[in-house]
Amino acid sequence: MVEDCCCDYETVDSINEEVLHPILQDLVKLPFFRYFKVKLWCDCPFWPDDGMCRLRDCSVCECPENEFPEPFKNPYSGLSPDSMICQEGKPQAAVDKTLDSKVFKGWVETDNPWTSDDETDNNEMTYVNLQLNPERYTGYTGDSARRIWDSIYKENCPKYPSEELCHEKKVLYKLISGLHSSISVHIAYDYLLDESTNSWGQNLPLLYDRVLKYPERVQNLYFTYLFVLRAATKAADYLEQAEYNTSNPEDDLKTQSLVKQLLYHPKLRSACPKPFDEAKLWQGENGPELKQEIQKQFRNISAIMDCVGCEKCRLWGKLQVLGLGTALKILFSVNGDNHLNQPLQLHRNEVIALFNLLNRLSESVKFVHEKDHQLKRSLRSRGLQLFKRMLPSRILNWTSSEM
Q1: With bands split at pLDDT 50, 70 and 90, how would you rate the model's confidence at 394?
Q2: Is 310 a catalytic residue?
Q3: Where does FAD bind (predicted)?
Q4: 136 is in an annotated binding site
């Protein structure tokens, strides 16, 4: 069993391979989930931003005004010729950052109590096409990158395991560790193998060194995946009725259909009906105070994303932290499966972040499952060859004949 969850690893791998991964891959490519609204230019509230990116792949291309769906944008207000060139040199234009009320037709504008960004502040936000800005290796390393994770773990999420940590704080640690593992997986999956030839591919030694050789990191990746999956399925009725409007009826119907397939799939509901049981949390007399404390810690983690010195890393960090914050919001504002403490209201951006995070975790689980078995077979094969070389030839010949 995945620790603190209600599913075993074999079931997760099977359901992810057969059901969740294929649907999520199709879903995030559709216009509604492809465009994420984000603040990319924020001052770091904790220290001066001195992070440097070695690669131009750190930069983010904003969407051309004529690209993202009609309901998402304002009437054309004019773009200068200079703004039609992205800093990567590709013909991507800067975005008109002003939005009108039609953008959020059918969606409320509400801030998430678990995250630091003001989701209603449209003036400072811009649209980014996630398909053109994949999460991958960017060359963002060194003290600046290390300081981000050190700050997250040391100041807001004390090291686990510790006998002094309550269950709720262990959950927070495991969520962050699982997200960290997933990010490492995607860096290893899409890595710059040779800068001189611009050759990209899989870096399996990096995957092993950062994730696979640490069983707890793999475990926390699965835990985070099931936690977010539980949030999505718990909000199924809300998400089923949501308006996925991009002024393209065919795409919008497909989006709604895939969301329903994902959330109500019979194989998922039978094999893993309740991936995580949130009812076990906040049960003590100090529950409300503890919830406020952990909520504050997670808001701090959200604010730290503004200190990431790489645009593309900042984009995916902010999106995935918002996705986790949305999962926390769903699980801890809804009491039971059908009864609400308060009406659940999600911002469109929260839904986009939730499903993109779920897809990122799904990809990571699939890649880890495949490569873990591959590496183990490789290590067993190498071990057997080494063992044979160490045996005297007489014994080796006898063993071979007996086999």
Answers
A1: very low
A2: yes
A3: 136, 138, 149, 177, 180, 210
A4: yes
pLDDT, tens digit, for every residue of 236-288? 999 998 889 888 899 999 999 999 999 999 999 999 989 998 888 877 777 78
Nearest to 325 by CA among 130, 113, 166, 153: 113
> For the chain, what percent of residues have pLDDT higher than 90?
39
Query: Is 180 annotated to bind ligand?
Result: yes
CA distance 284 to 254: 44
Q: What is the mean pLDDT of residues 291-296?
A: 88
In the block, which residue shows the tokens 């004390």?
A: 158
pLDDT of residue 123: 63
pLDDT tens digits along 328-352: 999 887 554 444 456 788 888 999 9
Query: Which one from 7, 58, 307, 310 is the annotated catalytic residue?
Result: 310
Question: Per the annotation, does 138 bind a ligand?
Answer: yes
Please indicate if the annotation marks 177 as binding a ligand: yes
